[in-house]
User: Fold Site-specific integrase from Halomonas kalidii.
Amino acid sequence: MSFSIKESKFGNETRVKLLLQDSVPVYWPCLYVIKKMRVRSPNTQQRFLSDLVVFLTWLKLESIELEARLQKRPQSHYLSESELARFTSQVHWKKETIDKLFSGVRLHHAAYQQVGASQAESRMITAKNYLSFLYEALGHPDDRLDQIARMVKRVDLSIKESRPSWKRRPMEPKGLTLEQEDVLLNKLHPGSKDNPWPKSEKIRVRNYLIIMLLFNLGIRRSEMLGIKLADIDFRKNRVQIIHRPNDPDDPRVSEPLVKTNERSLPVREELMAVINKYINMRRGFRRAKTHPYLILAHGKSGGAPLSIKSVDAVFNIAKKAFPVLKGITPHTLRHHDVHQTIKVVSEQTKDLPIEDRMQQEKRILNYKYGWSDTSKMPSLYGQKQYQEQAEKALEARNDKLFSNSSSRDKEDVR
Assistant:
């Protein structure tokens, strides 16, 4: 039994992930995705099916023909409490461990490899949702709703029990040091003698444009790769970030998707100059005339829209040339831009009451980075700035305490 996940396009250009077994679509998982997840992003569908493969493999390992059991009449045969308990106790195994068990290999206790708690929880949630769908579709009308409620309650209890009792450590602050910033803006400049792409001016300009867009606008990789020429307002120096799911203009296998709200962002003159320079170079690619996207692939796929993996490759080459960039990803630049934005907003609103300052900061961050009004992202992304503010406050407090202590010591000496 070999599962694989493939992306397919329907007539209206909707992209859907399908689960295949030995190159044949598996009916019920594919139907679930089409009915329940068609409007979700391909990445979300991919994660769901990857988790579902673990559940389906476990069913095979246990010799459970679930669909046949549910279709039995006069009474459907649902998963029992003990079967659900066995699955939730084994859901922490890595896929490789489950595959070995399925093939009949006997493993030593030390060979049972486990995934993290969050991934195990994701697998249980996926199994719960898929079972609810199957129970409703195939179960007996007299008891299927009661059986769904029983199953959901049992799985939810297992999820709660699997969560660690300790609180998760706060996210480490992310951003750029001054040295890293200098490398990105100066060493990777197209005119720098240290530029790691010396053979092609077009590649140097394109890669620098990638750096500048991420650094100056704080956008995601997918948002950057989704920018079309029509999204650029050359008169007002602005770029629009637009949500276009299942875009028929996009020929890429893995379509970059905008996860955040649409917005219009101002562009600095320096960045606008790089955009204009690259657009002039872009006209030299015949294939670029077949699509409207700004940033292109070079080399064998010259003129096609650039992929997300290619953006990561740009950063990997830069890190190899400049070890100081170790650990830097495209998303690090988004964290850094949030940090810089909070610093500017804090300075501009320092004379306002604390409640007004917080509201102003949240409104600006939510708009610039496309977050919803109820999003917790501002507090997560702002860790670096908040840590710096906390350290300054502690230093000031300690200085005051030390000053008062010194004064009392002097008086005691007198």
Remarks:
- Residues 223 and 354 are 33 Å apart (CA to CA).
- The two ends are 88 Å apart (CA to CA).
- The longest helix spans residues 383-413.
